[in-house]
């Protein structure tokens, strides 16, 4: 009996060792599997980051394409371009806002300050308003005009043919919006809708008025504007990114005179 009991005890101990070994092996297998799960997670995160970069590149490419189109076509062609696919307008302005975020100062903010320093009863026409930021930032009545109305307050039209009445506006604003090949027709329209002694405010990319790098001579541009029926009041070249030109409409209309306008080079963005 004693020998038989001893044999049974040995068999039980052997069985326990086998179970313990199996348990450790299973645990070891689990530990070995967990790094593979982490690896899968990391691998899945890389394509996501890659796709985001690709989307950003595609978005930037679309912006450059639309931007070049707007600088190298007429206002009427640009209007039809966006009528065919209005989503391109939002795509353009998303890229535009991304570019503007890199500027240390925004010209629209300076124009807002100018308006706040003057009487809030002045009626404003914002030519090429984009997201109508100017109208949202001042107390003045503002007619926001652009090629597409992505806001209920925006008037969608060719900026050379607005529905505004003649001599109905106190301040006409062009904030980085003299983009078409027929930009003089936009300024002529501003002259039409402005009251006598009304203000014309133009903010433009500085490089477009750098004659040393293919830009227009700012004096020649001002002379052309004045020949249309304006007086040059002041010029602000203090900012590195843009210039500001201030004009007032003359009491006498000289818009019938033939004017020699300088060419404004397109502001094109290089592929990064």
What's the tally of helices?
A: 7
Q: Bin the strand percentage.
A: 15-25%
Strand order of the largest sheet: 3-2-1-4-5-7-6
DSSP strand count? 7
Core attributes:
272 residues, alpha/beta, seven-stranded mixed β-sheet, 7 helices, 7 strands, 49% helix
Produce a short descriptive summary:
The chain is an alpha/beta fold.
Describe it:
The chain has 272 residues and is an alpha/beta fold. The chain has helices at residues 2-71, 75-84, 87-100, 107-116, 133-137, 183-193, 218-229, and strands at residues 124-127, 142-146, 154-156, 169-175, 194-205, 230-236, 242-249. A hairpin with a 5-residue loop joins strand 6 and strand 7 (242-249). Helix 1 packs across helix 3 (87-100). It is globular and about 60 Å long. Residues 17-47 have low confidence and may be disordered.
List the helices and strands and how they pair.
Layout: H1 2-71, H2 75-84, H3 87-100, H4 107-116, E1 124-127, H5 133-137, E2 142-146, E3 154-156, E4 169-175, H6 183-193, E5 194-205, H7 218-229, E6 230-236, E7 242-249
Parallel strand pairs: 1-2, 1-4, 2-3, 4-5
Antiparallel strand pairs: 5-7, 6-7
Helix pairs in contact: 1-3
């Amino acid at each position: 009996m004693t020998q038989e009991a001893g044999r049974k005890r040995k068999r039980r101990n052997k069985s326990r060792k086998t179970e313990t070994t199996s348990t450790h092996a299973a645990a070891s297998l689990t530990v070995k599997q967990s790094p593979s799960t982490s690896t899968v997670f990391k691998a899945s995160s890389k394509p996501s980051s890659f796709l985001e970069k690709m989307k950003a590149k595609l978005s930037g490419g679309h912006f450059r394409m639309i931007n070049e189109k707007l600088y190298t076509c007429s206002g009427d062609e640009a209007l039809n371009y966006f009528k065919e696919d209005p989503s391109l307008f939002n795509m353009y302005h998303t890229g535009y806002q991304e570019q503007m975020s890199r500027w240390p100062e925004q010209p629209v903010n300076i124009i807002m300050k100018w308006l706040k320093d003057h009487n809030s009863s002045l009626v404003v026409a914002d030519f090429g308003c984009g997201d109508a930021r100017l109208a949202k930032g001042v107390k003045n009545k503002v007619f926001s005009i652009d090629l597409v109305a992505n806001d209920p307050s925006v008037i969608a039209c060719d900026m050379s043919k607005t529905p505004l009445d003649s001599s109905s506006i106190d301040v006409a604003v062009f904030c980085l919006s003299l983009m078409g090949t027929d930009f003089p027709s936009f300024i002529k329209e501003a002259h039409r809708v402005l009251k006598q002694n009304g203000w014309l405010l133009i903010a433009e990319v500085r490089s477009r008025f750098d004659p040393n790098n293919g830009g227009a001579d700012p004096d020649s541009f001002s002379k052309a504007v004045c020949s249309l029926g304006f007086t040059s009041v002041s010029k602000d070249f203090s900012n590195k990114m843009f210039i500001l030109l201030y004009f007032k409409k003359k009491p006498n209309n000289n818009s019938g005179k033939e004017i020699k306008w300088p060419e404004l080079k397109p502001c094109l963005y290089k592929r990064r």
